[in-house]
């Protein structure tokens, strides 16, 4: 009998060891168990800080959940836009380079957001070159806002208030506002031209911009990398890199209040995502200049307790999955799919593809969402 127990124990050990080679834990009833650490080797980097030796050639990133939760939009290598139906697995693909007017050159898509009332529409930030002379020249650099109409397979460029014909030098999309209608579409934007910065709610039909005092205050306190209202718009969250306050560096804010954590050093802050019910917040962060993690904060609990040190669920991709995001301009970019699961962009070292995966908010791998 003792020999049988030893045999079973050894078999389990072999299964776990083999799964570690793939960076994925053994399945249990369709859900992978939470394991805090694997014996993962670190990715291989080139000498002299030249980056990873084996970066993926194809990267799926900048993922965004549709308002009804049925779809995920994502970008492939900044060039193509894809939309995945989470139930059927059907994928739509749009190539902006073939959809632009003849005088506009498309160089890449670097952000995208769903319309809150019509999933036929998405707004996109494109880097463009616009020929203003009619001489088929290369075009003048700009970052421009376009609306993608899925059914019509059409792109419409939006002229922003106070901007030149070629568009802003820089453009940031912070959200397509809930409460928008066809007659009053409102986008939360930040954009600049010739070092003059405009931030606020742009009401497209009226071609005007409305300032947001809370946002303006945070922006003056440091470099704002993300700002996001909760689904019911009762709360706000922000990421600031380099906060100009003693004893603070890179900080997560809730309703204008900076959160303090343990002794972890937040090297860089990338992206926020609210859960559909507005109770949790996911932040994609760098820790101690190593590898990206995802922190999940129970906002509802924090608002009640207001502890001196905020508690978060930390998902360490290096330790938990043997995975990273080493795809150039990409990051893990955690995005809530449901109230308990996230879409993340990551890969094992040496993989040719960096796809999207679905994981739980407590760090268990569920499934690969996208494929080449």
List the helices and strands and how they pair.
Elements: H1 2-22, E1 58-65, E2 71-76, E3 80-85, E4 91-94, E5 104-114, E6 121-130, E7 140-149, E8 154-158, E9 170-176, E10 186-193, E11 196-203, E12 208-210, H2 213-221, E13 223-229, E14 236-241, E15 251-254, E16 257-258, E17 266-274, E18 280-287, E19 292-298, H3 299-305, E20 312-316, H4 317-321, E21 335-336, E22 341-345, E23 353-354, E24 356-360, E25 365-368
Short structural summary:
The chain has four helices and 25 strands.
- Characterize the overall form: globular
Low-confidence stretches are: 1-29
Indicate the multimeric state. single chain
Tell me roughly what share of residues is in helical segments.
10-25%
End-to-end separation: 49 Å
Largest sheet: 5 strands, mixed
Strand content: 35-45%
By helix and strand content, what is the structural category? mainly beta
Give a written overview of the molecule:
By secondary structure, the protein is mainly beta. The chain is 11% helix and 41% strand. The chain contains 4 helices and 25 strands. The protein has helices spanning 2-22, 213-221, 299-305, 317-321; strands at 58-65, 71-76, 80-85, 91-94, 104-114, 121-130, 140-149, 154-158, 170-176, 186-193, 196-203, 208-210, 223-229, 236-241, 251-254, 257-258, 266-274, 280-287, 292-298, 312-316, 335-336, 341-345, 353-354, 356-360, 365-368. The protein has a 5-stranded mixed beta sheet, with no helix packed on it.
Characteristics:
372 residues; five-stranded mixed β-sheet; four-stranded antiparallel β-sheet; 25 strands
């Amino acid at each position: 009998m003792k020999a049988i127990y030893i045999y079973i124990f050894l078999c389990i050990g072999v299964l776990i060891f083999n799964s570690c080679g793939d960076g994925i834990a053994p399945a249990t009833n369709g859900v992978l168990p939470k394991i805090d650490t694997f014996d993962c080797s670190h990715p291989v980097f080139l000498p002299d800080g030249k980056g990873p030796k084996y970066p993926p050639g194809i990267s799926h990133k900048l993922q965004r959940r549709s308002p009804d939760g049925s779809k995920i939009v994502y970008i492939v290598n900044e060039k193509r836009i894809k939309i995945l139906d989470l139930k059927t697995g059907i994928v739509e693909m749009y190539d902006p380079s073939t959809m632009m007017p003849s005088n506009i050159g498309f160089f890449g898509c670097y952000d995208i957001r769903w319309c809150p009332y019509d999933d036929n529409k998405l707004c996109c930030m494109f880097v463009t070159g616009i020929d203003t002379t009619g001489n088929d020249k290369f075009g003048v650099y700009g970052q421009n806002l376009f609306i993608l109409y899925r059914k019509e397979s059409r792109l419409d460029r939006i002229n922003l208030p106070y901007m030149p014909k070629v568009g802003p030098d820089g453009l940031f999309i912070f959200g397509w506002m809930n409460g928008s209608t066809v007659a009053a579409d409102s986008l939360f934007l930040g954009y600049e031209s010739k070092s003059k910065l405009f931030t606020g709610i742009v009401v497209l039909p009226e071609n005007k911009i409305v300032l947001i005092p809370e946002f303006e205050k945070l922006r003056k306190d440091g470099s704002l990398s993300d700002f996001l209202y909760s689904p019911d718009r009762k709360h706000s969250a922000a990421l600031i890199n380099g906060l100009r306050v003693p004893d603070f560096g890179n900080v997560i804010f809730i309703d204008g209040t900076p959160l303090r954590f343990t002794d972890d050093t937040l090297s860089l802050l990338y992206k926020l995502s609210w859960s559909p019910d507005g109770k949790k917040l996911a932040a994609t962060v760098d820790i101690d200049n190593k590898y990206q993690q995802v922190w999940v904060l129970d906002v509802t609990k924090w608002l009640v307790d207001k502890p001196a040190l905020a508690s978060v669920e930390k998902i360490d991709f290096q330790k938990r999955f043997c995975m990273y995001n080493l795809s150039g301009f990409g990051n893990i970019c955690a995005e809530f799919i449901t109230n308990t699961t996230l879409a993340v962009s990551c890969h094992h070292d040496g993989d040719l593809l960096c796809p999207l995966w679905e994981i739980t908010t407590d760090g268990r791998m569920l499934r690969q969402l996208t494929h080449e």
